[in-house]
Amino acid sequence: MLAEDVRRYYLETMDIQVWQAREQQVEDITNVSAPGDVIWQQLEQAVSSCTKCELHTSRTQTVFGTGNKNAELLIIGEAPGRDEDVQGEPFVGRAGQLLNAMLAAIGFEREQVYIANILKCRPPNNRDPKPEEADACAPWLQQQIGLVQPEVILALGRIAAHNLLNTDQSLAALRGKQYNYAGFPLIVSYHPAYLLRKPVEKRKSWQDLKRVKSLLNSYGSPT
Ligand code: SF4
To answer: CATH code at 183?
Structure first.
């Protein structure tokens, strides 16, 4: 748990008043063998040379994922943007800083969670992923989820929620509930990039984060 003053700083960064406390085959990923460095290295190497969709022609590099490979909390976003494509890491830049603040507000440092995206390669001009691209890329993420074995998955944004839950409902309709993704509890919330454009929604995001924290606490996680 972070010191209270640090926690207060991050909550204020999020504009939270401190006083207020498509058809996709989901593979069986709950029985993947124990994670090991070799498995992760092989997976990352395979992703780095992937040509399963057209996005491999325009990427600077693949953006595999980052963080604690035994994390309790797995964050899943949309796809690499310009900064991520250059740096090779998900959620960098302003949206990444806000994600870090969101995580800190529930007692996590970025390095304690695992962060990945629906797509490993940047769509040109940051357009939405095409269904065929998301389908082609899904097995990579499924393997990551199976290796991490998180206690909770937090899907950030419409694209992540739609692809993981195979739905086209609005994010507003998807929020506030608990889902099951291949046996893993899943919560939906706003993407930090959206929150930067619409800060008034940060309050709802905080409600979602508290739900995540409560769920983790129910498993005895030290948050
Ligand atoms: Fe492969 Fe995914 Fe990149 Fe497409 S987006 S080339 S499926 S790693």
So the answer is: 3.40.470.10
Q: Are 93 and 83 in contact (CB under 8 A)?
A: yes
In a domain, 223, yes or no: no
User: What is the reported pTM?
Assistant: 0.87
- Model pLDDT for residues 71-93, shown as the tens digit of each residue: 999 999 999 999 999 999 999 99
148 C-alpha to center of ligand 1: Å? 20
Q: What is the spatial distance between Cα 133 and Cα 128, in angstroms, rounded to a whole number?
A: 10
Judge if the beta carbon of residue 134 lies within 6 A of ligand 1: no
Give 120 Cα–ligand 1 centroid separation in angstroms: 6
Average pLDDT of the segment spanning 93-115: 97
> Would 23 be classed as within a structural domain?
yes
Residues with Cβ within 8 Å of 87's Cβ and at least 6 positions away in sequence, in order, are none
Count of the separate structural domains present in the chain: 1
